[in-house]
Amino acid sequence: MNILEKIVYVKQKEVYKNKIVCPVKKLENSSFFERKTLSLVKNIKTSHTGIIAEFKCKSPSKGIINNTESVEKVVKDYESAGVCGISILTEKHFFSGKNENLKKSRPIVSVPILRKDFIIDEYQIIESKSIGADVILLIAGILSKNQISDFSKLAKSIDLEVIIEIHNEFEIEKITESSDIIGINSRSLKTFIVDYNNCLKLSSKIPNNYIKIAESGIDDVNHIFKLRKQGFKGFLIGEYFMRKKDPGKICKYFIESLSKRLNQKD
Length: 266
Hints:
Oligomer: single chain
Radius of gyration: 17 Å
Low-confidence stretches: none
Largest sheet: 8 strands, parallel, barrel
Helix content: 40-55%
Number of helices: 11
Structural class: alpha/beta
């Protein structure tokens, strides 16, 4: 069993329990359920840099990344740094994430929040809305095209945007018309090894009518310039910021450096 299979196996059991403890009707009573969501699509289109910064404490391959910074401080600092969106990991068993981190973040920032998790059931989409998410991630490697289509339609019906994450050429055919953003992940979720050329290899095969974002392994402004040339508009960065003592400060330096270089090009 590879890492991804283990994650899905544990997630199935977790969702089963959650449905009993907190049924859909209870989720729909959340105060977040009535709020108007914020658009990551719009923010990426209007952002100068396209940086989406992630709050991530741990990963299966790297172990603990940062367990000292509070989510409230980090997300506020990310927003001050000028990010166009924030990603928050909520997977608890392998990434030490929690729904509470998203709930705490939503009232204190005014940028879109992506709920980063392994969504395998419609229940989790309702749950995402109930904890304050604006965007969800659907991983093509663990879902069928029909599931992606059905999940995307449900998400849209409750005002959530959808990122379809792909890792290889075979998953491109799972992209549906309901997808808002296509994320290409350079990290294999089966081995957690990063292939820095993955985004570049797959980008030309994605139809131009989708917004493309690059995920994983980005730690250099020059890397972003290469990706921009291939049509990428958004760049999800987590580990590079979170490994540092003050993630928000590093994010600010990174965005300032990128902006400076982009202004020189203009």
